[in-house]
Amino acid sequence: MERLLYRAISLAAGLLVLLSLVVVPLGTVQSASIRAAVQSPQTIDVRFKEYRLENGLRVLLSEDHHAPTYSICVTYNVGSRDEMPGRTGFAHLFEHMMFQGSTNVGKGEHFILVLNNGGSANGTTNADRTNYFQTLPANQLELGVFLEADRMRSLNITQANLDNQRQTVQEERRQSYDNRPYGKTYEAVIDTAYNNFAYKHSTIGSMEDLNAATLEDTAEFFRTYYAPNNAVLSLVGAFDTEVALELIKKYFEKISSQPAPPVPDVSEPPQQAERRKTIEDPFAQTPRIDIVYKVPAGNTADSYALRVLGQVLSGGLSSRLYQKFVKEKELALSISAGPDERRGPSLFWVSVMVRPGVNLAELEKLVYEELERIKIEAVMDWELDKIRMQLRRQRAQSFYSTRSRANSLGYYAVYYDDPGLINSAQEKILRVSKADIQRVARSYFKETNRTVVTTLPKAKAAAPTATINR
């Protein structure tokens, strides 16, 4: 089965790459063979088995022997949305703390053990979850399971580890937010667009809150959220399912569960009027305009339609926004659009890197005109066909990686309590119709539902602005 899956992935990816070169805006003239290939492609499924340990740990196993490797991912149901005012940055801080050693693994040894065995490891944090993943040779299955279990059971939470990782995170903030072009833009957008603290603050946290973090606060955060009943372990690759399950039970089942953590309130009151903010950036070389609209949570009918709408607007060189603003009118250096999908209220984002000298107000008006056009004029068949093939190709290519599949299983299990979405979500997207795209554009692209943040270069002489030739 596994080798057949690999062959199916290879054939599907190759076919979709070929087809994507053929689908171009030819009006209504398309060959029947191309249209048939678009509408009836070979499907690719990730087969997995699900188990639940006595302590509540959810286990997802997907056996695949096409290569002698495996990936293990542990996804914790905690992100920056779980933080309280005055304690921002804790979720991301733990992404670093989790590599500082545990009872049976010395400080820094986690990476050494993985790298010395030819593997790779990392972790990521966002608003809705934190995950840790590593890829290792198949003959090191026990090592990966042991490493994840040991730090879940007995992480070394010491003052020394807290102090040095706090400094590491603060330096990361300086490099990624405070001292880089447009580093403050994202924070300005979410702070302006959201009312609820859960999504109003960034994952990196504030310097003040990081400085105020105590060892007791840190230990309590770990006890609350880093428990087996608040996690999903996904394993994909070359292993025997029964052997893997026994190893997981051996190392994880004796870890004590904890009371279920509180579920954060992420609800948002209806937005009544447009919100605007302008910030100055000493590192920016050219203006940037970010326009966001409030949209529903992920895994809804509207969220799938919004994903496709994002591709219509900016999915590649033939997309509407790129063609109009970058290629034809040469008003933007780059432009992107699409949903920032969350478990709660999300944002549909349009971001424009403006060419120097362009009149910002006129450019912004033209962007709104293009968004209005979606409401009035149905998407062309060739556009929808191109997007469907792009999405299929992206999925097929991503499935080469065991890590991608392991992370996806954990993502769908934690976000939506449905790991089966790894197979069904794609079909939901592909069923989006032209009418669905217009419906969501009409529902959410409203002046009263938008937030606009303009980032301007700081301390530079004002250059004359050019009038846009319509």
Description:
This protein is of the alpha+beta class. It has 2 domains: about 50-250, 2-Layer Sandwich (Cytochrome Bc1 Complex, Chain A, domain 1); about 275-455, Cytochrome Bc1 Complex, Chain A, domain 1 (2-Layer Sandwich), CATH 3.30.830.10. About 45% of the residues lie in helices and about 15% in strands. It has helices at about 1-20, 30-40, 90-95, 110-115, 140-155, 160-180, 185-195, 195-200, 205-210, 215-225, 240-250, 300-315, 320-330, 360-375, 380-400, 400-415, 420-430, 435-445; strands spanning about 50, 60-65, 70-75, 120-125, 130-135, 230-235, 275-280, 290-295, 330-340, 345-355, 450-455. It starts with a helix and ends in a 13-residue tail after the last strand. Mean pLDDT is about 90; it is low at about 1-30.
Tally of structural domains: 2
Q: pLDDT average, as an integer?
A: 91
**What is the CATH class name of the largest domain?**
Alpha Beta
DSSP summary, beta strand count: 11
Draw up the topology in text.
Blueprint: H1 2-22, H2 32-39, E1 49-52, E2 58-63, E3 69-76, H3 90-97, H4 109-116, E4 120-125, E5 130-137, H5 141-154, H6 159-178, H7 185-193, H8 197-200, H9 207-212, H10 215-225, E6 231-237, H11 241-252, E7 275-281, E8 288-295, H12 301-314, H13 320-328, E9 332-340, E10 346-354, H14 360-376, H15 381-398, H16 402-416, H17 421-430, H18 434-444, E11 450-457
Parallel strand pairs: 2-6, 7-11
Antiparallel strand pairs: 1-2, 3-5, 3-6, 4-5, 8-10, 8-11, 9-10
